[in-house]
Amino acid sequence: MTDEQSPHRRRFPAADIARVSVFAALIAVLGMPGALNIFGDAVPITLQTLGVMLAGAILGTWRSALAVVVLLVLVAAGLPLLAGGRGGLGVFTGPSAGFLIGWLPGAAVTGWIVERGGRTPSTVRLVIACLTGGVGVVYLCGIPVQALVTGLSLGKTALLSAAFLPGDLAKAVLASIVARGTQRAYPDAVPAVHSERLRAGGR
User: Fold this and answer.
1) Which residues on adjacent β-strands are paired with residue 123?
2) Mean pLDDT, consecutive 10-residue segments, the chain of 203 residues?
3) Per the UniProt record, which residue ranges are transmembrane (predicted)?
4) E strand intervals along 40-126
């Protein structure tokens, strides 16, 4: 079987590995400004969810999910890649564990919605995708785990998490604008276009 015929090669071309690596690094870099805890919430506000939204909007479903997996594996291995220099297995047992795990389906759902927009996903679709995946899905994963770990009620925990909403709304809009600009400048960056080429055996 030749390289061109190999399904493994078609699924994981070098360009995809590079994109996944870049976005895993981007999410990590967005943690460098640090974290902010407000109103006594044990879960900090960070810029890293912006990277998760960007990954989904630009990479699509499976590549964005893989970028998040790469980051979380490195964090689990002890690298201090989360905001505030956090890392190690302990972060997956703390109050923010559900939010961290939620990045994975959050990025994938964002990418899935963008892919449904075809070759020219609108800014509105991008905003909806980022809000649904990067906010809604992440909160659905994060709030119950935070409530379980802290012993607070779901209602109280949800109320604390409401403090994140203004910032997350701003991140969703910013991610959508950046993604739309990137896709206009580089049409091949549209997830649906990449998926079509991958299915056709291209790069």
Assistant:
1) none
2) 44 83 96 69 81 96 97 97 92 94 98 93 96 97 96 93 92 96 84 65 54
3) 12-32, 38-58, 65-83, 89-114, 126-147, 159-179
4) none
